[in-house]
Amino acid sequence: MRFPIHIILAFxxxxxxxxxxxxxxxxxxANPSSSTGKYPDKDExxxxxxxxxxxxxxxxxxxxxxxxxxxxxxxxxxxGQYHNRxxxxxxxxxxxxxxxxxxxxxxxxxxxxxxxxxxxxVQELHGLGVGxxxxxxxxxxxxxxxxxxxxxxxxxxxxxxxxxxxxxxTENESPIYTYTDxxxxxxxxPVGANCRS
Length: 197
What we know:
Helix content is about 35%, strand content about 25%. It is built from seven helices and seven strands; from the N terminus they run E-H-H-H-H-H-E-E-H-E-E-E-E-H. A seven-stranded mixed beta sheet has the order 1-4-5-6-7-2-3. About 30% of the residues are buried. Keywords: Signal.
């Protein structure tokens, strides 16, 4: 099942951090593994990633450790190691959201889960959308995830079409400036949310 990715990303950025901070019980109620002290099985991982695809970010990110080690593989504007869940959300998902059109809505779906019941699993996801400049965004990604015995994601290696992400961000993130623009405020960048290149 596919759901609009722009809605997923917008809601995610706006609400996840605040919700997680104010709801300490969200993690245990959405996380059967936390009470059993084992790694999540394939069904549990599938439910978790389907929740993410359907826009239930509170459930998904309550299962991501606050100090997660999330590595975006490749050489592109999002590449690097993120050691904080909030920074990862803002600096990757937020930037992608800002490059995609809201209509037609972008979608994301879980394609496969490999593994379960052990420390590592792999999830294949498929994202479709249109960049603000009309660029077709058709990206498949694999997230190699490491779990702790409390059922939290503590490490991710994210693989995807980095050339497409590079093009999407390069062509859609930077605003167009002219000689009539008044430059009396500092522009943020070159790395992070609201980046201007």
